[in-house]
Amino acid sequence: MTTMKTSSRWSGIGFQALAVLLALAFTTIVMLISGADPLQVYQNILTGAVGSPVKIADILVAWTPLLLATAGLLLTFTAGLWNIGIEGQITLGAIFTTWALRVLQPTDLPPALIITIGFIAGALGGMFWAGLVALLKIFGNVNEIFGGLGLNFVATALTIWLIFGPWKRPGVGSMSGTEPFPLELWLPTLQGFRLSPLSLAMGIIAIVIVYILLRGTYFGLRLKAVGRNGRAAFLMGIPTTRYMLMAFLLCGLMAGLAGATQVLAVYHRLIPSISSGYGFLGMMVAMLVNYQALWAAPVALFFAALNIGSIQLPIVLKLDSSLSGVLQGSLVLFVLLMDGVRRRLTRS
Amino acid sequence: MKVELIHIHKHFGAVHANNDINLTVESGKIQGILGENGAGKSTLMKILSGYIQADSGEIRLDGTPVKINSPSDAIRLGIGMLHQDPLDFPPMRVVDNLLIGHDGGLFPNRGEVVRAFSELQSRFGFNIDPYAYVDTLTVGERQQLEILRLLWLGARVLILDEPTTGISASQKEKLFETLRKLAAQGMSVIFVSHKLEDVEFLCDRIAVFRKGELVGQVDPPYVTDELVQMMFGRAISLEEKQRYETCDVSFHLDHVTIEDYRLQIRDINLTISCGEVIGLAGMEGSGQVQFLRTCAGLIRPVAGEINLGGRRLTGKPYRAFLEAGIAYVPASRLEEGLIPGLSLTEHFILAEEQNGFFINFDKALATTRQRIEDFNIKGTPVSTVESLSGGNQQRALLAMLRQPVNLLLLEHPTRGLDIESAIWIWGKLKERCKQGTSIIFTSADLEEILQYSDRILVFYGGKVSPPLDAESTTVEQLGQLIGGKGF
Amino acid sequence: MDTQIILIGLAGVLASSAPIVFATIGETFAERSGVINLSLNGTILLTAMAGFAVAVTTNSLVLGFLAGALIGGLVALIVAFSSITLKQSQVAVGFILALTCRDLAYYLGNPFMGLQGPRVASLPIPGLADIPIIGVIFFQQDIPVYASFLLIIVSYVFIFKTKPGLMLQGIGEKPATAFVRGANVNRMRYFYTVLGGMLAGLAGPMFSLSVKAGWKGTISGLDGFGWIALALTIFGGWNPLRAAFGAYLFGLLQWLGLVLQPSLPNIPSQVLQVAPFPLMILTLLLVNIGNAEWVDRTLAALPEKTRKWLANILRSLRTSPPASLGVPFENE
C-alpha cells in the first residue's frame, strides 16, 4: 500500500519534470522560429530576474498582487467557480483606491489614515465587481465566465474613460495615466527598493489564511462540497448560493487589495493596464498547483520572476515581453497534459 | 436465428462478471434470463449486442462464428437490444430518432421512413405519432418505438433488458403479445429480468444467473421456490409486516396544487401520521417525484397549504423544511446525494451541526467509525464515496440523516440494490418508523410498495388516486390504476 | 445620398461580422458534438497574426487563409486530445490556450507589426450587384463574406436536414445512444472540434487580411472577439441561423457606436467599443434567466394568468445546451 503510494508519487514527479522539459522545448522552438538565440534569451531572463538586489526585490513587488489574486482564486476554484472576472476586480480595486485618494488628498487627514482608507476602498471595489458576477450567476444563471469577461472589458473601458475624462491630467489626458499622487501618499518602501514590506506581508497573510480556511474549517469543507457537487450540498442543507457569494466576495476582496497595492505601492496613480494581467496569471498559478494552497506561493514566486525577467527583453533583444506568457502558458498546459497522460497510463 | 454463446468470460477489474457462460437460444423461442442485480445478466447481453467485448469466448449465429465489435456490427448481423433505460434521443422527433444511425444517403427521405414506420405499427397495433417529440412519449411507447426501429433495421434476435420496469400493466400485456408474435415468426427473443412473475409467465425456457455464473436452466412448468433457490442460493423470507402509529406530530397537505411545465397535479389532500409509510406508485414521470419534492420544500406549490405538526411550511424555503425535520433522499446517489471526491468522514462532518469554526478531526473520525459499524458500510473513514458500491452508498446516505427526523422522503430507496441490501435498508427504515418518523417513498417495484407501505397513492399523468390501504390492495389493482384505469 | 450611406454601412456590418460568423458557427459545431473550445480568443489572435505573416511573406492570400485554418485546427486538436483522450477539464485547457495563443501571437507577430500586406479585394457579382438596395448590401462584397453567407446556409442545412447532422445532434445530446446507433462518438467529437477550430481559424485571417487589414500587435483591436463569439454561440441556441443573427446584431451595434461617436464627443472611442460587452451580459441574462430556480419559485406565487404569460415569454427566450456538453463519453 505505502510502496504503491510512493511509487505513484515518484511517477507523478517524473511526469511533472517531463512537462517542464516539454514546456522549455516548446518555448525554445518558438524562440528559434522568431530567430532569437534561446541561450541568450534564457540568460537575459535570468539576469533580468535575479541580476541585482533591486531586481530580486522587484520580483517580490510582482509577487504580492499575484499572491493576493491566487489566494482569492483558490477560494472560487474550490467552490467550483471560474472567476475569470478577477482582472476586472483588480481594476475596480485600483479605481476605488484612486478615487478615495483623490477625494481625501485635499483634506487634513494623516497620510497613514488616507492610505488605510485607500486599501479599504480598493477591497470594496473588488468586492463590488465580484458581487456583480455572483449576482448574475446566482440569480440570472449567467455563467460566471461570460459575466466576468464582460465586466473585465467594462472595467478597462471605465479606467480609460476616467484617465481621459474626469481624472485627466492637467492639460491633456494621456495613456500614461492620472497625475501621480504626492510622495506622502506612497506606501513606504525599503530604502533604495520599490518593495513595500507592508503589502508583501498582506500577500503572505492572505495565502496563509486561505490555506487554513481550506484545510481545517467547516467553511472550507462546505465550500469544497459546493464546488464538487452543488446539488448534493444544497440537499444536505448547505446554503450553496450564500457560499458561492462568499467565495466571490472574498476573492473580490483580495483582488481589490491587489489593485490597491498596484496604486499605492507600485504606480502611485491609475494607469490603463493597472491589473498588469495578474488576475489571469493567478488563474494559471492555481491551475498549475492543482488548486492546492500549499504550493501556490512558490509557484507564484517563480511566475513573478519570469515576468520581471522578461521586462528587459524588448530593450536588449528587441523581442516582445509576451514571451514570458508563452513560457508560463505552455508550462501549465504541459503539466495538465502530462497529468492526463499519467492517469491514462496508470488506469489501464 | 439460433444464438450460441460459448465459454464467455468477462472481467471488470477484480470482478468476474461473466464466468464461463455457455448458452444456446433456439430460433422461435423466448429465452428468459433471470438473476438479481449484479448477477451478470446485463453484461452478457451487452457482449452479445456489441456494447462491450468479452475477454474470451465465442459467439455463433446459426452455427457460424461471428465477431461483434460494436452495436452497429450486432444490428448488421441481426441482433438488436432494447436497453433498460430506452436509448433514444428525448428532445428529438420520433422520425428523426428512426433516422439516426440508419444507413443511406446524405439527405433522409422522411416520407418513406414514416410510411415504413406506419406499416410496422399497424402490424403490432401500436399507435405512435411519427412527428411527436420522444420526450412526450411514455416509457412504454418509447420501448415500442425501439422495438419497431430494431425490426425496421432487420433484427432477428431481440434482447430486452428489464423491459417491464416503469411501464403500465396494459402496456406490459401488449409487449408480451408482441414478443409472442415475433417468436412465432421465427425470431429469437431474449428476455432479461429479475421479476419471477414476468419470466415465468412469458418464457419458453429460463436460464438463471448468480454471481457471474449460469447456475442452471429450467423448462416449464416452473416452480417458483426452485427459481428463488437458484437465484439467491437459498430461500428468502420477507419480513412480517408491522404497523406503528404512535404519536401525533402529523404532516398535512391541504388542497395542494403543483405545477410544472409538463404536468399539473391538482388539489391533493393528505394527512400522514407518525410512523406511517406511504408508497407512491405510478409510471415514471407521472408526478410522484414532483409530489415528493413538494413535500421536501424543493418545489413550491402554486396553491394550498403544507404544515407539519401545526407548523406552517407553505412557501418556506427548503432549509426551513429541513430544520422542521423533513429529510429528502434523492434517487441518484452520486449526482444528488453524495459528493464525489469527498471521504466518508468529510460527509459525516458536513451532515453534523457546525461546532465552532475549526473542525475537530479526531472527533469526526470517531463518529465516522461508529457510523460505519452501525450501518454496516463496507469502507474506511477515508474512502471516497464514489469508491463504494451502490448499496454502501445508500447506507452512507441513511447514516447521514440527522436525528430525529419527522418525515423522511425517499426516492427509489432500493433501486439497483441486491435483495439483501434492500431488506437490510428497510429494516433500518422501519426502526426509524418505530421512533415516530413518517416515510413517503417512490418505487417502480410494486411488490416493494405493497410490502412496506401502510397506504399507497397511485399517480397517473398528474392525477392522484385517493389513499389505498396497502393490506386490501393487490398487485393487479395497482397495475390497473398505474395504467390509468379507474381514475 | 443618406440612404446610400446607410446601405453601405449595412454592407459594412455584414462584412465586418463575417469573421464572427465563422468563429461562432465553428464553435457551434464543436459544442453540438459536446466539446467546449474555450480557446477561441487566442485562436483568432494567433491565426490573424499567422495568416497575415504568411500572406506577407509568400504574397499569397490563399496561403494566409490556409495557415489560419491549419493553426485553428491544431489548437482545437489540443483541446480535443486533452479533453476526449486525457479527460482533463475542457474549460481549463481552453482557457490556458486562449491566453497562451494570445501571447504567442504578440511575441511571434512582433517583426510583422505595421507592415503593409496583401488585402482581399472586393468582388461584385456581375448582375446581382446592380440590383437596387440588395445589390449594394449583399453582392458587392469580397469572397470571405460570400463564404460566410454560404456557411450559414450550409451549416444550418447540415445540422438539421442531413443524416450526419442528425447524428451530430445525437452525439451531443445522448452519446450512449449515438454509440449504440453505430457512431464512433469520440472520433466524431475529434472531427467536429477540429472542424470548428478550422472555421474559427479562418476568422483570424479574415480580420487581418480583410476587415481590419494588417497586424498591429496589442492594438490590433482583435482582443475580445473570441469571447464574443463564445457568448454568441449560447445566444444562438446552437443554431447557425440564430447565431449568425446574433453576430450581425453585434456588428450593427459596433457600427452604430462608430456612427454615433461624433455626436458624443465626451465619450472616448474605447468606451463605445466595449458597449457590446454589457449588452452581451444582458442578452445572456435574457436567454438564461428562465432556467433559474428562483424564477420558478417566484412565478409559483403569482396569479395563474400572469404566471402563464410570464412563463411563456421566458420559455421562448430560453435556450438549452446539448445535454452532454462538456461531459466526456466512455462506453464502460
Task: Give the integer mean of the pLDDT values of chain A.
Answer: 92
Count the beta strands of chain A.
0
Mean pLDDT reading of chain B: 86
The share of residues in extended strands of chain B comes to 15-25%
What is the structure about, briefly put?
The complex is a heterotrimer of chains A (about 350), B (about 475) and C (about 325). Chain B is an alpha/beta fold and about 475 residues long. Chain B has helices at about 40-50, 70-75, 95-100, 110-125, 140-150, 170-185, 195-200, 225-230, 290-295, 320-325, 335, 345-350, 360-375, 390-400, 420-435, 445-450, 475-480, and strands at about 5-10, 15-25, 30-35, 55-60, 65, 80, 155-160, 190-195, 205-210, 215-220, 250-260, 265-270, 275-280, 305-310, 310, 325-330, 405-410, 440, 455-460, 465, 470.
Strands, helices and their partners?
The complex is a heterotrimer of chains A (348), B (487) and C (332).
Chain A: H1 2-33, H2 38-50, H3 53-78, H4 86-104, H5 111-140, H6 144-164, H7 197-216, H8 218-228, H9 230-235, H10 240-267, H11 278-288, H12 293-309, H13 313-317, H14 323-347
Chain B: E1 3-12, E2 15-25, E3 30-34, H1 41-48, E4 56-61, E5 64-66, H2 71-76, E6 79-82, H3 94-99, H4 110-124, H5 139-152, E7 157-161, H6 169-184, E8 188-193, H7 196-202, E9 205-210, E10 213-218, H8 224-232, E11 251-259, E12 264-272, E13 277-282, H9 288-296, E14 303-308, E15 311-312, H10 318-323, E16 326-329, H11 333-337, H12 344-351, H13 361-374, H14 390-399, E17 407-411, H15 419-434, E18 438-442, H16 446-452, E19 455-460, E20 463-464, E21 468-469, H17 475-482
Parallel strand pairs in B: 3-8, 3-9, 6-7, 7-8, 13-18, 13-19, 16-17, 17-18
Antiparallel strand pairs in B: 1-2, 1-4, 4-5, 9-10, 11-12, 11-14, 14-15, 19-20, 19-21
Chain C: H1 2-32, H2 40-58, H3 61-85, H4 90-108, H5 134-138, H6 143-161, H7 163-173, H8 175-180, H9 185-211, H10 225-235, H11 240-260, H12 269-274, H13 276-288, H14 293-300, H15 304-317
Helix pairs in contact in C: 1-6, 1-9, 1-10, 1-11, 2-3, 2-4, 2-9, 2-10, 3-4, 3-9, 6-7, 10-11, 10-13
